[in-house]
Tetratricopeptide repeat protein (Larkinella rosea), 564 residues
Amino acid sequence: MKRLYTYSFLPILLAALLVGEFVSTKKQLQPEPELAHIEVPYAPICGMSHIGGIPYSLLQQSVALRPNVGQYPTPTSTKSPKAQAYFEQGMAYLHGYALVEAARSFHEAIKLDSTFVMAHVGLSRLYIQLEDNKAALKAAETARSFSKYASDREKGHIELRFAQLKAVDSLSNQKLLNDYRTKVNGIVKKFPTDPELWLLSGNSYEKFATGRGQGSSTGSIAIYEKILQFAPEHPAAHHYLIHAYEGMGDYTEALKHGKAYARLAPNLAHALHMYAHDLMKTGDVDNAIAEMKQTDAIERGLYTSEKYDPMYDWHHIHNISLLALCYQYQGRIQEAEKLVKERFEIKRPINLERTFYNKMGYPTLLITQNRDAEAAPIAVEMTKGKTPGERVIGHYLLGMIALKKNQLDQAKASLKTAQTELVEAKKEAQTDWLNAWLDPHPKFLASLIGLHDPAAREKGLADIRKFQASARDQTGPDPWIEALFQLEMIAQVATQLKLTEFAEESTKVLAEHDPYYPGTHFVLARIADLKGDKVTAENERQLARKGWLKADAGFLAQNFPKNN
């Protein structure tokens, strides 16, 4: 399902207005004139022992220059070639969401040139991604204090820091967001050959001023595509187009840009991970797994060589989570379990309210593998968690276990408690991210309860169809594949309850979501069994077996008992 945004035509218009300037100037990016450079003592940000939950000492830790992480020539006013190289490395890491490495690179550039305005600007942008607005403002003020060493274009970047920070401090204020967009577009028009300004413009057309290329609108696509007209090898433009086309549900186009990003930044973990997103969604799960394993190897190599805990890298959790889901897709449960257990045990130094995201995968996997006795104690412990999100998921999981045992009253009681905790979670949430990730779980449980209860089945069917429509609308990688397993569960429950017509309907929805998934054929075999069609049932089982060639022996034994 394609997503449309009411403001999407504004950046398209901007791109159209500026086409003439690109055509007429035909200018290549050139280094800006060197400005007077005076050495001043390096002064670190004072009084901040942690930035966004990450030790400041780690963000300042020395780092080496590394090849092929997505660097792109970005002329600045520094006279130090090495500082320039570190700055470009920092920007590559910033665009690739490797936030610790970006910070280290910017700090290294500043150690070499303390008046390096664009490195301070880079730090300010980075701190917003770490959700530390105070640190972001301090870095912007430092950049402004050195503005006499900056070119007019760099001064424009400094202006944008304060305009964005003002909008970030009041995320629901549409006027401030529009003011920021206007400011970005005005500076883009003054300096139309600066890809970084265009990237900021594309980011600004996301829902919130904190946009970093992940929530792009249709209009953002016009801007990123425009960058590729004059900078066709710009890694960040390809990166943000992957997210944009994923949001539109166009996985084939996203895959094209994913391949380009991986080629341009083969040593950047997120570049390989992004390519894996759409390999997975277009049926090439083997190669998706290979890319995510390489992503994992790059990240673990960094943690070992640079001596820091993976809990400080949000991306590690994301990658192993998606890799585990891909293993589950192939029936490789032992490999999946190892990763979701690691995820379960990782602490979150940033945004403790999202702890549930780490913890839910492990017990969920156990439940899907009929290991309820192992999952139940974990779920009970989660109901006692420090954050409302953990408690919501704990009660949700207990409800799912009760439902499997056909204990409807207990399932309903767990659902009610989960919904109560969800209200508390929404009261405490800083952004809508928490609500978006928590909301679907109690709704899913409620829909399944309705399906099981003959007295409420009509309403249950209506609710579960709404849930199916919502699941089909998931385009992000984790939600997309999690939705796949939820759609599979709905079809399985329908066959178990002998709701043949709805089971067929549900399996069609499952196949529309992912026509390549072996589980679809497995459900089709069970429907054929219900109809007494043994030939079709056996054919579909064989297709499922073929898709699960790499599955664990235990998984195959559970799904294909010898007497079948």
